[in-house]
Amino acid sequence: MTSPINPVFEDIRLTVQRAADGRFWFVAQTVCQALELADEQAALLLHCRPEGILFGNEETPQAMIDLENLLRLSLSSTSPRAERLRSWLCQVLLPHLFSSSSLPSYRQLSTANKRLRVLKWHDDWWMSMNDVMQVFGTRPELLAMSEDPCCS
């Protein structure tokens, strides 16, 4: 996941991270706090799809929910904040998250007397396999296919 960002909704600091697949994940505890849901676990069990819940690898794992589950919680909440949260999400946070700063960008990398084009996307750097082979050579042992039948 990318480095977390911490937008503030009505004095509540949320935590949002983007996974490598582009999905956004929100810390469930602060979402429930913003929606005035007293029992976080019950809310997640009752209203969220299990595939949209992740638990971190901290000493005390922290539940994170995807955007769909955030919307599910906000639609099931009876708090007057729920509608304001949805408006803030659509008008402020999502446009920021999808802004051009989150789009991939190309850079030039000079190494071993070669100029390579690299892509920066979601806090990771990407190179084409062709460019990698130009720099490191074509060593067959590095490219050997797995003997695993599922990968054939």
From TrEMBL:
It holds the Pfam family Bro-N. It comes from the Bacteria. InterPro entries: BRO_N_domain. Residues 13-101 form the Bro-N domain. SMART domains: Bro-N. This is Bro-N domain-containing protein. It comes from Ectopseudomonas oleovorans.
